[in-house]
Amino acid sequence: MVDKSWLYQQGGRPVIYQSDEEYYQLPDSHKYRHKVYDPLKGIDFTWEREWRIHTNELILDPSETTVIVPNRGWVENFKQEHIDSIESDIMIFKKDAWMMIDKYPWHFIALEDLGVHVNWG
Question: Whole-prediction pTM value?
């Protein structure tokens, strides 16, 4: 999950909800944004408020990104898998002793913390 302003700065744009016939009226540079909208046929995904970006690679900035996972176990697994590629902890002096505090750069939301239970395998 990223902020819309950040994604916009990277070139992201909201999809264009329209009929299939209108797709062909779009310039090639905008066709990636097309999403079928036909409420007469029950096709209405406007509630998704989808955004797209036309790029081969999008580098996510940890300070601008929140990773959504099903539960806290996924957070710990992610940290263990990527611990070698980042500096994860720093030392602070607290209560007459040195302590490690987590400075992992990625932010997480665990859906189970919000009362949402999913099984992603």
Answer: 0.69
